[in-house]
Amino acid sequence: MSVDRFNVPAILIAVVVICAALNVASGVFAPLALALLIIALLWPVQHTLQAFMPRSLALLFSLVSLIIVFALFSYMTLWAFGRTARWIINDVSRFQSVYDQLTVRLEGHGIAVAAIWTEHFNTSSAISLIQTISGRLNTTMSFWFVVLVYVFLGLPEVGNFARKMRSMDNPELGRVLLQGSMVTGAKIRRYMLVRTFMSAVTGLLFFTMASAVGLPLSKEWGVLAFVLNYIPFLGPLIATLLPTLIAIVEFQYWQSAALFFVALNLIQFAVGSYIEPRVSGNALSISPFVVLFAIFFWAYLWGIFGAFIGVPITIAVLTFCDQHDRTRWLACLLGGADQKPEKRGE
Q1: What does the pLDDT look like over 108-165, one tens digit per residue?
Q2: Measured between alpha carbons, how far is 332 from 322 in angstroms, rounded to an integer?
Q3: Which of 196, 166, 160 minimizes the C-alpha distance to 46?
Q4: Contact present, 219 and 207 (Cβ < 8 Å)
Q5: Each residue of 59-79: pLDDT tens digit?
Q6: DSSP character for 220?
């Protein structure tokens, strides 16, 4: 079927309705999407363990491994952010001095920074910010509990789901679902492996750079760069801005801080635009425009969790589109420059 034979208005209406449903019911679909991502990562471990032990014991081992990884990741994140926040609070007088100097310079050019700051930041806004952060923490704990329940119930059903797809009355639909699920799982596992390796490289380079210039909290900057690099584009931007703000206070010269900022961005560019594509190859090739759109789109729908899983969701959608002749054009259109259609049965 050619593209022009599609009912474009009906497709657009369906897309809008689906997006609205995903936004309204984010409390259901967001943890489900993250659970499916985790199941895709854990299934090879679960499947291997089932060959040596009972399925229930293999499931318990897989879940315990997931909880340990999540606990370590959370501890690293809270440790880095906590130590950074305490350092800023202890040195608040130096930040105030830099702010006063900047205010004087800008007001000398006719920019009333103090008035703008007073208008947009006051005691009420600070209390509201604290309440919002507290509410987000409670929501996060509930979110991860729902995710773990989904994983606990869904992981044992992967084998049954595959058998049901093989025995469907519509063989073509069963093939698309089964092949798409298998290829998607393999791509997501490769994506997360590459992303973890590149995040570790970025964190190590950030630590080395911060230590070389004598910037405080060099270990913390390395950990934050590692954690934030899991969110493409937005994460690396935050990871470079935070240490640059500290560098402005520490170095006292904006030229030194600017050079430090440029050096961090060069690291991000080299890792993200040169090393990572060569490590991942063409299998994960997606247009950079589509990646950026996916991050902002899913972040708009589901917040920080949407930004984290936006790219894996896009990989899944394009992979399923590539499994059928009628939708393969979309996978080719939105793929990277080297994207080629996958042959059936590969």
Answers
A1: 666 655 555 555 554 455 445 545 554 555 566 678 888 888 888 888 888 788 788 8
A2: 8
A3: 160
A4: yes
A5: 888 888 888 988 898 888 888
A6: H
Rg of the chain taking only CA atoms, in angstroms = 24
Specify the 3-state DSSP secondary structure of 53.
coil
d(C-alpha 181, C-alpha 164), whole Å: 13
Cβ atoms < 10 Å from Cβ of 232:
19
Q: What is the C-alpha to C-alpha distance for residues 179 and 188, in angstroms, rounded to an integer?
A: 14
CA-nearest of 251, 243, 147, 192 to 44 is 192
- The one-letter amino acid code at 156 reads P
SS3 content of the chain, % helix, strand, coil (to 5): 85, 0, 15
| Predicted structure pTM score | 0.77
286 DSSP β-pair partners: 335
269 pLDDT exceeds 50? yes
Collect contacts of 149-152 with beta carbons under 8 A, ≥24 apart: 150/31, 150/32, 150/35, 150/36, 151/35, 151/38, 151/39, 151/42, 151/63, 151/66, 152/59, 152/63
The three-state secondary structure class of 120 is helix
